[in-house]
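Recall the central idea of this unit: under ordinary conditions, the amino acid sequence of a chain determines the structure it adopts. In this exercise we apply that idea directly, starting from the sequence alone.
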Amino acid sequence: MISINTNTASTAAAYNLSNTNVNLQKSLSRLSSGFRINSSADDAGGLAVSMKLSAAIRRTDATSANVGNGLSFLQTQDGVLKNADKILNRMSELATLSLDVTKTTGDKALYQSEYGNLADQLAAMTNEDFNGIALFGAGTALTVRTSEDATQSVEITIGDLATIQTNVDAESIDSTTGAEAAVSAVTTAIEDLASLRATNGSEQSRLSFAADMLAVNKTNLEAANSRIIDVDVASESSQLARFNILQQAGTAMLAQANQSTQSILRLLV
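Accordingly, the structure predicted from this sequence is:
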């Protein structure tokens, strides 16, 4: 049947061309943005999963920064402990030198002066802090979260350097008895300090492994999110070429369908 009022072929061609234009615009949007999903209508479920993965990635980055700061705290703490070890070793040396029977009272007084100054320096080191957080204190600890969901953590020990300092500061090496007591006290202090440094080292090691795990987790999260949200450029380029051809063909066919009604004029003339 030939009809003037209704051109079914033109309507169908216009409908197909409209769909092609929509798909072409989507393809152009994906390639220009680099994302497969540019609106919730593109993939509602995928977008929801991607949003959760993106949030997890951001939390992982923040957790990595926190772990890094925890490592810096421990490294600063160990730096103080390393210097404290040098001080204690020198104090031990001075106490031993004071036991020399050939040393005069004046000589021992000089040793005592240096010993006292070193004890004061050790006392000053007990007040060191990192960004306002005390590096040392009796029976305290800091908790560093090591997973993006905050379910895993590492305890940072705040070593009791003050007690070590107090024990050696209480001794005087200007006498034989005092020097002997000082040697014993400093020897014990060095052992206690070694324990603090060993604890510090183990905590640094654990935080380092935690930082490595966070880096691995971030890589895996980004890979999973990329599979959902990122566009496959090769595949989408093929789709773009396809829709371009369909658009051109659809435009030509719409024009052809519109011209088909011209044949009715021949019947009326």
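Residues 8-34+234-268 form one domain.
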